[in-house]
Amino acid sequence: MRKKVVLITGGSSGLGKYIAESLATKGYRVFAGMRSKKKILLLSKQWRNKSVQPIQLNITSDKDCFDAVEKIVKKEGGIDVLVNNAGYALVGSFENHTSQDFQDILNVNTVGSFRMIKAVFPFMKKRKDGKIINITSLNGVLALPSFAMYCSSKFALEALGLSLKHEVAKYNIHITNLAPGAIQSPDHSQKKEMPHKPAREKFLILKILMPFLTYKKITEKIISIINNSNPPVEVIMGADSLITTSLQRVLPRSVWDKMVSYVWSK
Ligand SMILES: NC(=O)c1ccc[n+]([C@@H]2O[C@H](COP(=O)([O-])OP(=O)(O)OC[C@H]3O[C@@H](n4cnc5c(N)ncnc54)[C@H](OP(=O)(O)O)[C@@H]3O)[C@@H](O)[C@H]2O)c1
Predict the structure, then answer these.
(1) From the CB of 164, is ligand 1 less than 6 Å away?
(2) Domain span at residue 48?
(3) Statement: the pTM of the whole predicted model exceeds 0.70
């Protein structure tokens, strides 16, 4: 049977690297996009005998996006699944960030995913088949303090997926926004420094109520989306995402706002 071809952006590290390696062990033909030539060289060696191949891809470049897709299509005949994973967070007071910082994060987290969708779309349309998975975030469905620019970029990515879904459905192309809450990296050295104390450290009960998501859980969800002939357009993952989005839905806005202010002011 033909191996499904998956292209994942931001495959050089973190979640993207884990998903790429896991999908390869599960019988997918994986292309892991990355912008650093050094990492391409390093991972080409590491992945020599695996079904995962690094490919030059800086998602802020139209040319990189189209070249990478064209190369894969030439080699494999098409791309079955695009995972828009590359992205980063900006945390802290907006006073410390410039308009250029804001434009940069939009260029990667939102426009970068748009570039990738534009690049794969003609080939998926021709085949009348394709899946696009956007890794958004809890910060793409809830606007939380200290994350204004990151939230804006992920809300915009959410909106992109929700709107485009209707345009591409007639070509049997499915878009899913996957919004994970906080993820625990298996490599603890990758722990990111935050300018504020995370809510889980202010209220220890949250550590129990809202355990971190794992890379493994997210990868399993991605596989289930790939195997679903009619996947949902929105998947919210993690106890933190599920609890907070449910609370926001049922609480009056004034109560929700007070709660958020209280947690942040602690
Ligand atoms: N970690 C969490 O708790 C969490 C929660 C919810 C959602 N997410 C989302 O999950 C995704 C992966 O996060 P992560 O925690 O794995 O982050 P990460 O370890 O920082 O990895 C991000 C990846 O994106 C790549 N990237 C950044 N800018 C790029 C560009 N211009 N072109 C191509 N690749 C670029 C990075 O490449 P380099 O190696 O070259 O920098 C890296 O491979 C992100 O979209 C993030 O917003 C994360």
Answers:
(1) no
(2) 5-193+212-239
(3) yes
